[in-house]
Amino acid sequence: MTSTSDIVGQRHDPEAPRYAGIATFALLPRLEEVPRADVAVVGIPFDSGTSFRPGARFGPAHIRENSRQLHPYHQIHDAYPFRDQQVVDAGDIAVGPYGIERAVTAIQAGAEKLTSQGARIMALGGDHTIALPLLRAAAAQHGPLAVLHFDAHLDTWDVLHGESIWHGSPFRRAAEEGLMDLNRCQHVGIRGGVYDPSELDDDRKAGFEIVRSEEFQERSIASIVEQVRGRLGTGPVYISVDIDVLDPAHAPGTGTPEVAGISTREFFTVLRKLRGLNIVGADVVEVAPAYDHAGVTGLAAAHTAWELITLMGLRDTPGEDPNS
Ligand SMILES: [Mn+2]
Question: How many domains are there within the chain?
Answer without folding.
Answer: 1
